[in-house]
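Ticket 4471: requesting a sanity check on a complex prediction with oxa(dethia)-CoA. Repro inputs:
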Amino acid sequence: MAPRTLLTAGITGVGMSFPERRLTNADLEKMVETEDAWIVERTGIRERRLAPRGTGASAHGVLAARQAMEHAGVAPAEIDQIIVPTVTPDMVFPATACLIAHELGAVNAWGYDLEGACSGFIFALQNARAQIEAGHARRILVIGTEIMSSITNYQDRNSCILFGDGAGAVVVESVDAERVGIIDAINHVDGVGVRFLHQKAGGSRLPACAESVEQNLHTVYQEGRDVYKFAVKGMAGVTAEVVERNGLTGADVDLFVPHQANIRIIEAAQQRLGLPDSKVMITIDRFGNTTSASIPSALRVAVDEGRLREGDTVVLCAFGAGFTWGACLLRWTAR
Ligand code: UT7
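Returned structure tokens:
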């Protein structure tokens, strides 16, 4: 039997969706002891979006997915798989992918949720790429969607200033390997990070009970300074690695689209590659940290701002709870 040739996977459509309500730094000044100037200087965030209580992650996931499918020119019935990276699923089970498939009318798709925290989108993209390359699927939706406000403790100034709600989605299909498509990816997990960033209750180890609710254990617990140190090293390191091992330098990169957790972490990775500001996507100022939604929504902003052209060399990277981190190198597929 002749050896099977791998196909090449590429992003052919991008979408995003955010709630209308803005939570500004001035609003937060009324909720916890903090200042606009501190938040802007230490994180780069000016405002984030907040969904009304009771909104599930699927709601914005569906809207982002519709926009991505429209961009790619793909109908819901043509989708083979739906992968939903999220830490804030509508329910513990079933998978948010099921809810989204139903709402979209993606009647020929199977799918699942993926828990990679802030690296969830990068991890899910790698899974989608593998399925497309192997010929097991033709069109896959990857939808990073989060209602971070549902697990944010608005009495903890160390963390409540960071997070926002929203969704970003991409369609992944096989593309012309000569010109465009995903070239390489590197991903990591290291459980050394669990103690610094996690949600204590609601899992099998500590199911919800009166005490867990009383003690606010169903929200993000973060030791920010420690996470910051790992994030700077991890994100800058893996970004440089994926570029260099493909014989490229920062000068070859047209657009850098990092996870939006903290402007200073992004700047560290940017400096490592020697990139000018014009080549770096920044959306943290308007959306805060939206976990798995930050990279795909930043891609959509880049498309809307005309910052991506066919064949452009793009680098994505992320770092998050776990710890998890990774980077992806691709050439852009214009639509
Ligand atoms: O996306 C998932 C991965 N997560 C991350 O990447 C987050 C990584 N960490 C960070 O981004 C930063 O560590 C934070 C933004 C969370 C905190 O910034 P920092 O510069 O590391 O501040 P710090 O924790 O070292 O705290 C410095 C000071 C402290 O006061 P003292 O102890 O020196 O008196 C904090 O209590 O700043 C204080 N502080 C605040 N002050 C005003 C902490 N939060 C606030 C606040 N407003 N909201």
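Notes from triage: The two ends are 36 Å apart (CA to CA). Leaving this open until the requester confirms.
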